[in-house]
Amino acid sequence: MLWPQTVKQRIKTGADREIIHSYPYRSACPSTVWAELVAGARAELFLAGYTNYFFWTQVPAFAETLRRKAESGCRVRFLLGDPVGEVTRQREVVEDVALSVSTRIRMTLGELARLGAVDGVEARFSAAEDAVNHVSLSVFRFDDDVLVTPHLARLVGHDSPLLHLRRHGDGGMWSRFTEHAEELWGRAVPV
Q1: Phi, psi of 83, rounded to the nearest 5 degrees
Q2: Residue 23 in contact with residue 44, Cβ under 8 Å?
């Protein structure tokens, strides 16, 4: 009688089985996790953070890795906020930090420009009507893994929590977050 209850308490059997790890802060997620997920992506690398700038500081040789991924057939996408958009301006007032939102977006745009035109690497700005939904939730997809940051009130991304999810079928949290990012991508405009 004790065995089934003990097993149920220790083994994830429901929707929570998609949760690999949770972190109270995005910055608490080890850089090795980010690097391993980027390196392990074979088909899909979709970085739908509002700024995405930290990848170049967090993942060693990130630009070269992007190039190799795209050349090997991996789809690489960046969904960014518009650096001159109204939501970006409002978010800068809310965050009130020296490294502004528009600066962080421009850092990503600069790195993408240095990367040059690479088949398989796409970048878009979220549509103006979607910007408020984009700025409040970052979704980073690496094939069947996703890192999700729901942005809290006045906190910058690295101070907000992060969930590491792995896909286990359709209709779970993984699907809900990736479908949200895909919806934003569908209405986004090319950089």
Answers
A1: -65, -20
A2: no
Q: In what order do the strands lie in the sheet with 44-48?
A: 19-23, 162-166, 145-150, 137-142, 44-48, 75-80, 121-125, 189-190
Strand partners, 23: 162
The terminus-to-terminus CA distance of the chain in angstroms comes to 60
Phi and psi dihedrals of 169, rounded to 5?
90, -175
pLDDT in tens, the chain (191 residues): 555 655 555 555 556 789 999 999 999 999 999 999 999 999 999 999 999 999 999 999 999 999 999 999 999 999 999 999 999 999 999 988 899 999 999 999 999 999 988 899 999 999 999 999 999 999 999 999 999 999 888 777 788 999 999 999 888 999 999 999 999 999 999 99
Ramachandran region, residue 73 (left: φ > 0; alpha: ψ -120 to 50; beta: rest): left
| CB atoms near residue 166 (< 10 Å) | 16
Looking at the DSSP assignment, which residues form a beta bridge with residue 21?
164
Entry pTM:
0.90
Alpha helices in the chain (DSSP H): 2-10, 31-40, 55-58, 62-71, 86-95, 101-115, 131-135, 173-187
CB 164 within 8 A of CB 147: yes
